[in-house]
Design brief:
The structure is a homodimer of 441-residue chains. The first copy, chain A, has 441 residues and is an alpha/beta fold. Helices cover 41% and strands 23% of the residues of chain A. Chain A has three domains: 4-72 and 105-181 and 281-356, FAD/NAD(P)-binding domain (3-Layer(bba) Sandwich), CATH 3.50.50; 185-272, no CATH class; 366-440, no CATH class. The first copy, chain A, has 16 helices and 20 strands. In chain A, strands 8-2-1-12-20-19 form a six-stranded mixed beta sheet, with helices on both faces. A six-stranded mixed beta sheet of chain A has the order 6-5-15-16-17-14. Strand 13 (178-183) of chain A pairs antiparallel with strand 13 of chain B.
């Protein structure tokens, strides 16, 4: 008889993991607190669209879903920077054809649930709120819609129940569990730029739009229906100063004049939509023996500024799957190797994501930064094997996040060195480059 | 009618705070989970003795208790380092007469409870476990010994219920509460060197004894009854290798030969006594409006290596009292100023305490370190107004902990500079010193 595995949390990570495990023949019970999103239009209390990139695509490809999802996605080939004077500056993300992809969270989750439902060895349980986990007995207790409780027994448990995971809560009160939750000083509010006539995009479609304003910023991602989902990131105390239609209008007129003209329902949306917070969660250990493992946001919630939250969670799934491939039915080894492979890298992407807030909100409008980006881009073109940017390593590769973090620091020293020497024109000279690589390594 | 204040936690910090508030005329209800320690010999699950120093003494002095407590304390004027070859090295902590004081946690807590019980406006409630706090309604719920629940209403609540505070738990689930719990890789076990005949001390009485062994260490503090409380700090995985009398005996013979000879009940104690963990807790915010404030370990649990846990908690009390003095009945201002004054400093002592583990376990046996300590000592003697060591600022002053942390870093650069120049003989030359102070500032 094959192992029975309980997965707690039917979001993107948990549902994808259920499919990977079902393909290996395990008997899966997937429990989700909310109703079945295929039948009910519900908000997950999370962002509407996501940026799917290389790591996430690899995970979808292994279950044959990548092409279908990409067909409905909108590729964003670069950043479009909007200044206060309505000037536009475009920065490509990578080489020709490299893009991050705007996808709908709801559609992707729905599609994964449909796929999971097609497996005989996956049982889906909705409206089931986890109230307790007994790690040693490998039981989980769920409160059902009618208020009754159900205790569920299995061989092991995967906690994929998000940043405020009930499963993690059970580990947290045990001895020697390291845990931190750290809130950014900025909150966010979702707003909208609707489509024009005939579902026309009101700004260039294939870009991630940014209005960097130093202490705050707005971004916009395109949706297939022609509208853009805007997200305003701003310190909570600045949000608190905008309480009336007039205050909101004055603020947008001054800070985001071009966007304001395309936002007919802005003031109403602004006052109605919630201001949400952004948390980074780190913890350790993620696993106990062969009994339980945390995955996705439950193990490592990050802020959204590198567009890697979902991609990192999907990479958890592919790494867990590789560990199963390598260690067969030795779940103590599988869990322990999964944790060892992922923990340093999810710590790294957590830090990169916070760094990227400051890059997006502030530096992308800075002359020196733009000069460095151009130089970085040219080096990547000239030496594709030798030089890779932090952004490319993070977004367009499956290299470990920690490597991307470290390489980014090394790149920065190199770029500053070349600029300080005024040697931008020498970068085509391989002998010069080899000398400075030698010096800086 | 004066304000009614609920204090949750009748340990050292909560009981001391109740006395300060009672003296200002507030009506205090102090709730403690455990039975009355004056009637029952109970272990708090914490260390047996503590090192009382300047900050703690100031707090006791303000309620007239310092002399009485000091009369029963044993002053420790320095560290006595025990090598593997039974060689002893003595390092004074400060100038002549400066000492940290070994006091019994149980006796100090009992004495504070006795004093509190003498106030008509302090009501003590034992066996009352806090199960819920409603911050906005200013109510706290307690489970009593007979299993019944009691809801208690007051004007405001102080949470002094320790590192695993129930009060903090209520703040933690609210939005935007930063929190971290971080465990040290070493655990600890308490052991004993009993008194000799006629309550004779078997080692020099007026010192804190240290057996530094790099990856682990043992310390011993004297008790008035002639015995020493030893604490062995060691990585958990090393503890796990010592499971039999023979293994413990072999280990102590090799690592702590002189101590082993004075520990007749060692092997039994070792296998019987628990191995406990060491946690650092940081969180923010500590206060909400005029409704609740966290104090002591509930706000900032630290590891014990600087001997400042109790001293820092007592300083919370004197700072809170100064804020009341300055802001009268404006509790929003009192709590907010208390938090602003304390948070950076308790973060600093948390970091200093972790640093000091490595100093005690490893560096105190190191030649270069001892050379620096001598130089530091001499500079302190030569320039008492201009040069103060980090240890002296932390232990023998009421300067902010953050200043001690920063000054320590500056001192270190100075000491390394003098040693690198081979200029130890020049430190009596004021002109030389003024030149390097100028250079390094």
């Amino acid at each position: 008889m094959s192992d029975k595995i309980t997965i707690i949390g039917g979001g993107l990570c948990g549902t994808l993991m259920s499919i990977y495990l079902a393909k290996r023949g395990y008997e899966i019970n997937l429990f989700e607190r909310r109703p079945d999103m295929r039948k009910n239009k519900i908000s997950a209390g999370k962002s509407i669209n996501l940026a799917l990139s290389t790591r996430g695509l690899l995970a979808l490809k292994k279950i044959g879903l990548d092409k279908e999802i990409l067909a409905d996605a909108i590729p964003m080939f670069g950043r479009m920077i909007h200044s206060k004077n309505n000037e536009l500056t475009y920065q490509p993300y990578g080489k020709d054809g490299q893009a991050i992809n705007s996808v709908s969270r709801g559609r992707l989750n729905t599609r994964l649930l449909e796929l999971a439902d097609g497996f005989k060895n996956i049982n889906l349980h909705f409206n089931s709120r986890c109230t307790d986990v007994d790690v040693d007995k490998s039981t989980a207790t769920f409160e059902l819609e009618d208020g009754t409780s159900q205790i569920f027994q299995s061989d092991r448990i995967l906690g994929t129940d998000g940043a405020f995971a009930a499963t993690r809560g059970k580990l947290q009160i045990s001895d020697r569990f390291n845990y931190s939750q750290s809130y950014l000083h900025v909150g966010y509010k979702e707003l909208e730029i609707p489509a024009g006539e005939g579902a026309q995009f009101m700004m260039s479609k294939n870009a991630l739009h940014i209005w960097p304003r130093g202490a705050f910023m707005m971004i916009a991602l395109p949706n297939p229906s022609g509208d853009f989902t805007c997200t305003l990131f701003m310190p909570f105390d600045v949000f608190d100063t905008l309480k009336t239609n007039a205050e909101v209008g004055t603020f947008f007129t001054k800070e985001f004049p071009d966007a304001f003209q395309m936002m007919p329902t802005l003031t109403g949306d602004f006052l109605k939509n919630p201001t949400s917070s952004l948390v980074t969660v780190k913890c350790f250990p993620w696993v106990k023996d062969d009994k339980i493992a945390l995955m996705g946001d439950a193990a490592h919630a990050i802020v959204p500024f590198y567009g890697q939250g979902m991609n990192a969670s999907f990479e958890d799934v592919t790494v867990m799957d590789e560990c199963i491939e390598n260690f067969g039915s030795d779940w103590t080894k599988i869990f322990s190797k999964y944790q060892a492979l992922r923990k340093p890298n999810t710590d790294a992407i957590a830090d990169l994501a916070i760094q990227n807030y400051y890059e997006m909100a502030d530096k992308v409008g800075d002359k020196h930064f733009l000069h460095k980006k151009t130089l970085e881009h040219n080096l990547g073109d000239l030496y594709p094997d030798k030089f890779k940017s932090q952004y490319a390593l993070t977004t367009f590769s499956n290299s470990p996040y920690l490597f991307a973090l470290d390489q980014g620091k090394r790149n920065d020293i190199l770029l500053e060195h070349i600029i300080a020497e005024g040697a931008e024109h020498k970068i085509t000279d391989l002998a010069y480059m080899e000398k400075i690589w030698y010096l800086l390594d």
